[in-house]
């Protein structure tokens, strides 16, 4: 195993390859740039004013649209309870270990999602590949927020415009979503749809008005909403990390007030119990379904926002000794709770819709897809007897805050990566450029075909890309840099021993599971429906193109080395740069001293055995 201890700024000691100062002194030598000249001391990056701001920002990033919008639709598409068990397993085996690892690497190095691969320069292309996925997610998240704004504005109308059927919605037997009594009988064979679903497909997106083969132009109302959200996020991001930290208090806490209140009502709807049963009843046969596992891994990445770079970027603004273990546990458990609560809420409403339409096959009640949230929630809101407009305003404002929290966190990751590589880059220019490009690309997702395009880009540009980059990320951190160095750095930073389960997951279990899921997913995965074959070919080109920076950057990293043979250049390119480590020169000095005298902390069992052995010796001597 290569533990990264051949760092040019260190020499190897006799006790297992632990780094020590090169000149044998406690004061480190000036780090060398690739040119061989001493680097200037790094300018310390902006920090969170308080640790709680970091916690709230991570909650706003991780507990967002991925939980409330994407999780219910993914669970519904994969059979409800058939999806929940694999998802929970993936959260424990993949999600939490990677979340803690990314927090640790960001805080320890004070580097963003690309610069953090100074730990192994040959792998820096991973950060660039993840940036591609981040950009895709940011663009369609913003379009989803625009849809939430469209519903928010419509919620000022009384009665709610989706509460009753419109005469223009022909070709269906329409049931008023405000109806809480028996479903009326129809004398024809037309499909039964609720007014909430027809409002979304006909009045909001226009998807239901498209003829076969048509794409459609951007909806002008959604376009204005998209423009508004990009302007708002741009203004918010110009103030920097501290400005977003202040907003995070509201972005993190307000959604829970609305979500819990809404859930209490939804659970009382007639038929909700059947929907809940569908959500929590496991289908053990689905554990052998490759698609379910691939979707579970992808949803885990979305729910926790891991392998996108946002967690690393936020952690890089922490103080060096912040207790990230505590924060990682709080956020990961809260994320799981939010996903399950959102799923239970949506499936309660789906059960109620099934009751209204006399349909037990829930896939016939509503169409699976990214628009599920904008059908089930509005339908339930239309049934509120008291002030439904107020609850609708609160709910869609909650979706807005969730989306902004997730989106700004991902934008922060992009900004951090760009400013790490180009420190002279003006923050406001970066934000404005991202805003303009994001708005232009987002127009694709506010067309009548936007829902199909979202599923298409999510499949090829996000799911497989993040899954592949996650495998390379674990290889870089846990194999090239090495578990021993990781546990040493955690001990120095937190004075905490890393347990066996963490080390086992990081090095073996998590990457092995991801590799198996990726291979099976590539071979057997079902591609998005309703899209021409030529677009699927283009989709695989997007996948390959997104991952292309990994081999390209590896080639550049090897080429830059000056060693005599190719093998030596490759090995040298896997080692950390000379300035890898804590940002502060004073902390780095203590770090070098710690490395030269490093002794792993004892485990609880080792301490217990030592105490018992000592007591046993004392007893025998006394006897």
UniProtKB/TrEMBL annotation:
Classification via CDD domains: SLC6sbd (cd10324)
A Pfam family this chain is assigned to: SNF
Compartment(s) of residence: Membrane
Residue ranges of the region described as Disordered: 1-44
InterPro entries in UniProt: Na/ntran_symport, SNS_sf
GO molecular function terms listed in the Swiss-Prot or TrEMBL record: amino acid:sodium symporter activity; L-amino acid transmembrane transporter activity; metal ion binding
Cysteines engaged in disulfide bonds, as pairs: 165-174
Residues annotated for Na(+) binding in this entry: 63, 67, 303, 402, 406
Keywords (A to Z) from UniProt: Amino-acid transport, Disulfide bond, Glycoprotein, Ion transport, Membrane, Metal-binding, Sodium, Sodium transport, Symport, Transmembrane, Transmembrane helix, Transport
Predominant place of localization: membrane
GO biological process: amino acid import across plasma membrane
Keyword Membrane: yes
Gene Ontology CC annotation, any one: plasma membrane
Keyword match Transmembrane: yes
Transmembrane parts of this sequence: 81-101, 131-153, 220-238, 247-267, 296-317, 329-350, 390-415, 427-447, 459-483, 504-523, 535-558
Topological relation to the membrane, as annotated: Multi-pass membrane protein
Its job: Unusual broad substrate spectrum amino acid:sodium cotransporter that promotes absorption of the D isomers of essential amino acids. Neutral amino acids are the preferred substrates, especially methionine and phenylalanine.
Family: Belongs to the sodium:neurotransmitter symporter (SNF) (TC 2.A.22) family.
Protein name: Sodium-dependent nutrient amino acid transporter 1
């Amino acid at each position: 195993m290569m533990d990264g201890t051949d760092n040019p700024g260190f020499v190897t000691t006799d006790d297992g390859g632990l780094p020590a100062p090169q000149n044998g002194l406690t004061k480190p030598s000036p780090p060398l740039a690739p040119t061989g000249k001493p680097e200037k001391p790094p300018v310390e990056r902006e920090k969170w004013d308080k640790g709680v701001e970091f916690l709230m920002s991570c909650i706003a990033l991780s507990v967002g649209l991925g939980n409330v919008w994407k999780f219910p639709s993914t669970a519904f598409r994969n059979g409800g309870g058939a999806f929940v068990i694999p998802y929970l397993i993936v959260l424990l085996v993949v999600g939490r270990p990677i979340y803690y690892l990314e927090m640790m690497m960001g805080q320890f190095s004070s580097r963003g999602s690309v610069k953090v691969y100074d730990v192994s320069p040959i792998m820096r292309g991973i950060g660039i590949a993840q940036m591609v996925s981040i950009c895709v997610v940011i663009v369609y998240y913003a379009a989803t927020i625009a849809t939430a704004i469209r519903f928010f504005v419509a919620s000022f109308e009384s009665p709610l415009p989706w509460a009753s059927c419109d005469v223009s919605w022909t070709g269906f037997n329409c049931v008023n979503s405000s109806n809480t009594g028996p479903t009326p009988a129809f004398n024809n064979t037309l499909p039964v749809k609720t007014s909430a679903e027809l409002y979304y497909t006909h009045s909001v997106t226009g998807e239901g008005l498209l003829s076969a083969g048509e794409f459609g132009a951007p909806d002008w109302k959604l376009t204005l909403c998209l423009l508004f959200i990009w302007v708002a996020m741009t203004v918010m991001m110009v103030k920097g990390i501290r400005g977003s930290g202040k907003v995070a208090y509201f972005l993190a806490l307000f959604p829970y007030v609305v979500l819990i209140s809404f859930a209490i009502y939804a659970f009382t709807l007639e038929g909700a119990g059947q929907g809940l049963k569908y959500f929590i009843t496991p289908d053990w046969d689905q554990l052998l379904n490759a698609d379910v596992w691939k979707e579970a891994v992808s949803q885990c990445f979305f729910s926790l926002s891991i392998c996108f770079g946002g967690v690393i970027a936020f952690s890089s603004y922490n103080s060096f000794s912040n207790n990230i273990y505590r924060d990682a546990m709080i956020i990961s458990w809260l994320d799981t709770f939010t996903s399950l609560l959102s799923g239970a809420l949506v499936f309660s409403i789906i059960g109620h819709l099934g009751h209204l339409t006399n349909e037990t096959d829930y896939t016939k009640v509503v169409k699976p897809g990214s628009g599920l949230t904008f059908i089930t929630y509005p339908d339930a809101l239309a049934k509120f007897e008291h002030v439904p407009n107020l609850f609708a305003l609160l709910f869609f404002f909650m979706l807005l805050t969730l989306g902004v929290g997730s989106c700004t966190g991902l934008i922060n990751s992009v900004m951090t990566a760009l400013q790490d590589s180009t420190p002279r880059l003006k923050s406001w220019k970066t934000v404005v450029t991202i805003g303009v490009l994001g708005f232009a690309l987002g127009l694709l997702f506010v067309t009548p075909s936007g829902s199909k395009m979202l599923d298409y880009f999510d499949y090829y540009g996000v799911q497989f890309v993040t899954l592949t980059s996650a495998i390379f990320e674990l290889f870089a951190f846990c194999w090239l840099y090495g578990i021993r160095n990781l546990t040493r750095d955690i001990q120095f930073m937190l004075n905490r021993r890393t347990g066996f389960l963490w080390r086992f997951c990081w090095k073996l279990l998590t990457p092995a599971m991801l590799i198996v899921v990726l291979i099976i997913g590539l071979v057997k995965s079902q591609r998005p429906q309703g899209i021409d074959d030529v677009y699927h070919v283009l989709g695989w080109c997007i996948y390959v193109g997104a991952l292309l920076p990994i081999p390209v950057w590896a080639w550049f990293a090897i080429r830059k080395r000056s060693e005599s043979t190719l093998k030596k250049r490759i090995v040298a390119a896997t080692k950390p740069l000379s300035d890898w480590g804590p940002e502060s020169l004073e902390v780095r000095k203590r770090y070098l001293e710690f490395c030269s005298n490093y002794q792993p902390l004892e485990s609880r069992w080792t301490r217990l055995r030592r105490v018992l052995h000592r007591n046993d010796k004392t007893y025998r001597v006394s006897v």
